[in-house]
Design goal:
Layout: H1 2-18, H2 28-35, E1 37-42, E2 50-51, E3 58-59, H3 61-73, E4 76-81, H4 87-92, E5 98-104, H5 107-110, E6 113-115, E7 120-129, H6 137-140, E8 146-150, H7 154-162, E9 167-171, H8 178-184, E10 190-194, H9 195-204, E11 210-212, E12 218-228, H10 232-248, H11 250-258
Parallel strand pairs: 1-4, 1-5, 8-9, 8-10
Antiparallel strand pairs: 2-3, 5-12, 6-12, 7-10, 7-11, 7-12
Helix pairs in contact: 3-10
Length: 265
């Protein structure tokens, strides 16, 4: 009996000690501070995340945002290049500590990761060639129409639900706005994309000759940072940091620097 009792006590002690291991949830904040580095997943979507072709460095609204958070933590940033379909797997496999990609908050994603409080929002619209006769979503939703959208995104999920007859083409390239490029190249009839980011991208690339269709904006959605499931202390830290940036006016300064939306032509 004494042996059984001692064995049980030893098992409890081992379990208690093991609970403090680095691979246990809710230790990420401490690990980041200990390592002095915050690994940040980046995926291209202007003006939130853009890789400068000259310097090879990431720039944008979200990039500036996480730089401010890293300053609060007194840690360096290590950018991790990825794609939208790989964001959640990268968090789950510990390739990065936080995703700073411009990611819509959705219930499906909330089943797999934690979101911070939101800091910006976006709507979805369709883009077509400037000389296209297509003007409304009803015009697009025909069996002979191909609509491009990015694979592994909320845009894909919404497009498949909203358009009942049109053919969906999923772009998987890591290039910036590959679905818009697909339409500009004549490989698709239209693209479903985020409104503000796409208008800014088209202003920067006037040779693409695309326009937004004359119809309502769809599916207003909010952006937030993503972190691995179970990391509640890190989530709280990020939320407090975002609120501090908002209260100080720094968040508005960052947003104003990057979200200067051009008029649609």
């Amino acid at each position: 009996m004494r042996f059984v009792t001692a064995f049980a006590a030893c098992s409890i002690l081992i379990a208690y000690i093991g609970s403090g291991r680095a691979d246990q949830p809710d230790t990420l904040l401490q690990q980041i501070k200990k390592n002095g580095v915050m690994r940040v997943c980046q995926a291209a979507y202007p003006p939130y995340n853009v890789k400068n072709p000259q310097s090879g460095e990431w720039e944008g609204l979200n990039v500036d945002l996480v730089k401010e958070i890293a300053a609060f933590l007194s840690v360096k940033i290590e950018d991790v290049d990825t794609s939208f379909p790989a964001l959640i797997p990268s968090l789950q496999t510990k390739k990065c500590d936080v995703s700073a990609a411009a990611t819509y908050v959705t219930p499906a994603r909330a089943e797999q990761v934690l979101f911070t409080t939101s800091y910006a929002s976006e709507t979805k619209v369709a883009f077509v060639p400037v000389d296209s006769p297509l003007k409304t979503y009803a015009d697009l939703d025909k069996p002979n129409i191909t609509i491009a959208t990015r694979s592994g995104t909320a845009e894909e999920t919404f497009a498949k639900r909203f358009f009942k007859q049109a053919k969906m083409k999923l772009t998987t390239s890591d290039a910036t706005q590959p679905h818009l490029l697909d339409v500009a190249a004549g490989r698709s009839d239209a693209a479903l994309a985020g409104r503000t980011g796409s208008l800014i991208f088209l202003k920067q690339n006037p040779n693409l000759k695309l326009r937004m269709i004359d119809d309502k904006q769809l599916d207003p959605s909010r952006f937030a940072l993503m972190i691995p499931a179970g990391e509640y202390q890190f989530q709280q830290y990020l939320n407090v940091s975002l609120q501090s940036l908002k209260d100080s006016g720094k968040l508005d300064e960052i947003i104003g620097r990057w979200l200067q939306e051009p008029a649609n032509k």
